Amino acid sequence: MMPRCVSEIRGWLGSRRSNDLVGACRYGIGCITSFFSSRTRYGCSSSRDIPSCYRTMAYATSCATWSEPPPKDNASADMLIDSFGRFHNYLRISLTERCNLRCQYCMPADGVELIPSPELLTHDEIIRLAELFVSEGVDKIRLTGGEPTIRKDIEGICLHLSNLKGLKTLAMTTNGIVLAKKLPKLKECGLNAINISLDTLVPAKFEFMTRRKGHGRVMESINAAIELGYNPVKVNCVVMRGINDDEICDFVELTREKPINVRFIEFMPFDGNVWNIKKLVPYAEMLDRVRQRFKDVKRLQDHTTDTAKNFKIDGHCGTVSFITSMTEHFCSGCNRLRLLADGNFKVCLFGPSEVSLRDPLRAGQDNLVLKEIIGAAVKRKKAAHAGMFDIAKTANRPMIHIGG
Predict the structure, then answer these.
(1) What is the DSSP string of 266-322?
(2) Tag placement on the chain: N or C end, fewer CB within 10 Å?
(3) Is residue 358 part of a domain?
């Protein structure tokens, strides 16, 4: 599909020249600058002089198709609204690709090739982009990884983010291995919501599933979060048949005396995690097992943007939730966007399309250009993901690269 701004100037550039411009867009801002500056008629000496629609195209090279960027005057007003009217006020930021565990559903057995550190977003770049998103309406940020707590400047990042005007929630998803000793300081720095991943209550099974030791440290982190007043402390559990599905009711027991929200997550396909439908335990089956063991399991009122179906068990302090990405997707209420550790921007967890925000940032582009790039990507977001079988056949990054 040819962008409208190319077709509209065919008479100005001529057919051959406009085709050259489309080709230049495929190779990025350097080539498109060269295209204009080499023709005295157009007189562009730097990327800042290039018409905005071409700057947007140049940075969107990783997207499968082009679509028309939003009009320049409206780029700020509706940057976070997609073509289906969904407003995206929730940004997930991956701080690192590194992790101190090797969970089977997240990292391929033979590991992954890590992106060199100079190519990852710096502290200042993360804050700059976060400020931009928050200024446009994002009021919740979740820090992910890899494992976010192993980033050395994690406290400083939290402090800067929590002070952004308009941000209501600063959350983190962590494996809990080193969280207990860092959480008091992180709370002081403004971290006000926590999710801790734990897929088994059996130490030996933990070592099998994560390829590392550390079950006791994760339990210590859960208890530390409770003692520090986090309510609820969310515990994420990816359920896989034949591995940990026999522990569903044991996890529910965690909610009896403590303010824990156990979140059972359907096993999702990503590159390298050997997803198979036989390993998937559907939400309906998980809920049925809970109802057979526990009485008075009541459905709670979910927000339209909730990823989880939430339940309360009579007499329990905490709650139980199910994240049903595979069998009952919640795409119609999706309000989430993702900024990856390398600065790529992703509008759907399961969609392969990405666009770099790092490159234009490092090229010195201003916020207006960044808003145009973000807005164009958001507008390309589809109504729903392709379904679990198509997702399993579509090239995507491993979860460790995307962020939890």
Answers:
(1) E----TTS---GGGB--HHHHHHHHHHHSS-EEEPPPPTT-SEEEEEETT-SSEEEE
(2) N
(3) yes
Cα 339 from chain centroid (whole Å): 6
Average pLDDT value for residue range 331-360 = 91
pLDDT in tens, 66-79: 333 334 444 445 89
Asked, for residue 14, whether it belongs to a domain, the answer is no
pLDDT tens digits along 218-231: 999 999 999 999 99
| 73 vs 368: CA distance, rounded Å | 10
- Distances from the Cα of 289 to the Cα of 98, 262, 285, angstroms: 36, 15, 6
pTM to 2 decimal places: 0.77
DSSP for 322-348, please give it: EE-TTTS--GGG--EEEE-TTSEEES-
What is the mean predicted confidence (pLDDT) over 162-177?
96
Q: Contact, 116 vs 147, CB < 8 A? A: no
Structural domain for 182, as ranges = 90-392
pLDDT band per the 50, 70, 90 thresholds, residue 101: confident
Counting every residue written for the chain, the total comes to 404
The total domain count for the chain is 1
Q: How many helices (H) and strands (E) does the chain have?
A: 16, 12
Asked if residue 373 lies in contact with residue 59, where contact means CB atoms within 8 angstroms, the answer is yes
- Quick check: is 127 in a domain? yes
Residue 39 to residues 28, 33, 259, 281, Cα–Cα distance (Å): 18, 10, 66, 61
- Confidence tier at 103 by pLDDT (50, 70, 90): low
191, exposed or middle or buried, with CB in 10 Å at 0-12, 13-18, 19+? buried
Strands 193-197 and 233-239: parallel
What CATH number is attached to the domain comprising 285? 3.20.20.70
Question: Does residue 38 form part of some domain?
Answer: no
What is the rounded distance in angstroms from the CA atom of residue 375 to the CA atom of residue 278? 39
